[in-house]
Amino acid sequence: MRQRLTIAHIISEVQPFSKSGGLATIGGSLPRAHRELGHNVLIITPYYENIINVEGQTLEVVAENEHVELSPGIWEEVSFLKGMLPSSDVPVYFVASKKFFGERNTLYGAVNDNARFFFFDVAALHLLKLLNLKANVLHCHDWHTGLIPYFLRGRYKKDEFWHDTACLFTIHNLAFQLGHDWWAIPEGERDPGTSSLPTFDDVDRVEKINFAKRAIMNADAINTVSETYREEIMTKDFGQELNRVLKNREKIVFGIVNGIDYDDYNPLTDPGLVQHYSDKSAGRKKDNKLYIQKKYGLEVDESVPLICMTSRITNQKGFDLFSLVVSTILRLNAQIIIMGDGDKALSDMLLSVEKEFPKKFAFIPFDSNMETSLYAGSDMFLLPSRFEPCGLNQLIALRYGCIPIVHHIGGLADTITDFDPYEQTGNGFTFPRYDSGNLLIAIVRALETYKYKDTWRDLVVFCLQQANSWIIPAQKYIELYKTTIRLKKKFMRNGGGNGK
Ligand code: GLC
């Protein structure tokens, strides 16, 4: 019989409850995929009191006013609530604290973000004990949960309760290692990762703890969200100063490309679309285009290629390059819609482009209700990221037959292959080097290909037929959990549990 695992996902964002980016999409879909494979799954995440979306849920109080010890003699109060992940029977446990998660209107960006997640990590472990839930694997996502692997090999290493619990740390984005900018910390004050933790009341030092580094040094296994990014983060250029730490543990660092939920994203049933379609009725996609052009004030003309971008407005996503080529593209026969929020200077740049080209360019704030209509209505999706651990939007774009134009990097390199007009292979347009000339060439190649209607239709159908659901990656995670469990056993056999 197949082994049934108990898996605890510990993660700072879970769609639909809280979201700042792709992490939440994973938090809301991977646990469900694991449940569908027959495993016992639960999620632990913060209760961001002011902004949490718990519509349609009746939360159950699991425990109130529990006390957790953050450092010797320093205690804080915590409560735990329980909800359900929609369309599943996966319980979601919320860590609630007025002091740490009750007062802000954003998920992150507080001066004490490290303290908030230090507290969260201790509280998450406390909850599992309280529930007497001995998980086979704690799956810790990104820096916010980075002290958990550290605690398991440190303060709790002799604790029988955790004896058989293995810990996997997933890097969703190595640029984020703690609640603040790692590079802004003076070199001499950076956390070496090997010293003992400062006590919780040492505010200054707590805010300099490098959670990701401590996780990488202590997790039983580590993975990141694509195979190429796995290679990249072990190099100086992409390693964000952790490349050597990662290289030291290379044998236990893995790469698994994310999937997307094929029920959440389905052009045949998506309630947000004005016209449904599939690979068998791709021609119907055009109604969505006419709708989008009208809605956002562009010239309504089916024959003009429409490019969309949906991402945080930051330089990581390639907006610096984009700003250099946007007016050239618009002078060609093309339209562009950008949906997203973020950096002020970049947003101002986009607004001024919109002023200059009102019938060809639209810049709109992120609107989750309209996101999929944009993919359905556009011909091309642009994501020229400087670096990209995985990227989910190019997968969603494929699902809606919207052809990706991407930088050949990280997860984009693993999921998008360059279109070859002679061989008729490839599912998008890629550019190899991060510069504006390369980007422009890729866009122009896409616009040229668009002129060949039959070729373009075949490409759209090919993209609509691609398989990027969770089915395969969720299974790969299960295999990785088994490896993680073996590694933990080995660690314990070698005296790990005795502090040797
Ligand atoms: C982060 C990464 C993105 C990845 C997502 C989910 O947001 O920047 O590339 O797709 O996490 O793993």
Describe this structure in words.
It is built from 17 helices and 15 strands. The mean pLDDT is 96. The chain has a 9-stranded mixed β-sheet, with helices on both faces. The chain has a 6-stranded parallel β-sheet with strand order 12-11-10-13-14-15, with helices on both faces. 35% of the residues lie in helices and 17% in strands. The protein is an alpha/beta fold and 500 residues long. It has 2 domains: 6-259 and 471-498, Rossmann fold (3-Layer(aba) Sandwich); 282-464, Glycogen Phosphorylase B (Rossmann fold, 3-Layer(aba) Sandwich). Bound molecules: alpha-D-glucopyranose. Alpha-D-glucopyranose binds at residues 21-23, 26, 172-173, 225, 258, 388-392, 411.
Question: What is the compact description of this entry?
Answer:
The chain has helices at residues 22-36, 98-101, 113-130, 147-153, 203-206, 211-218, 227-232, 243-248, 285-295, 319-331, 344-356, 371-377, 393-399, 410-415, 436-450, 453-464, 471-493, and strands spanning 6-10, 40-46, 60-71, 74-84, 91-96, 137-141, 166-171, 221-224, 253-255, 306-310, 335-339, 361-364, 380-383, 403-407, 429-431. The protein is of the alpha/beta class and 500 residues long.
Any idea what the shape is? globular
CATH architecture field of the largest domain: 3-Layer(aba) Sandwich
User: Could you name the CATH topology of the largest domain?
Assistant: Rossmann fold
Biggest sheet descriptor? 9 strands, mixed
Q: How much helix, percentage-wise, in residues?
A: 25-40%
Beta percentage is: 15-25%
Counted up, domains total: 2
The count of β-strands is 15
Low-confidence stretches: none
Structural class: alpha/beta
Distinct small molecules:
alpha-D-glucopyranose
**Average predicted confidence as pLDDT:** 96
- Which value, in Å, is the CA radius of gyration? 23 Å
CATH superfamily of the largest domain: Glycogen Phosphorylase B
Give the termini separation: 36 Å
Q: Provide the spatial order of strands within the biggest beta sheet.
A: 3-4-5-2-1-6-7-8-9
- Report the CATH C-level class of the largest domain: Alpha Beta
Tally of helical segments: 17
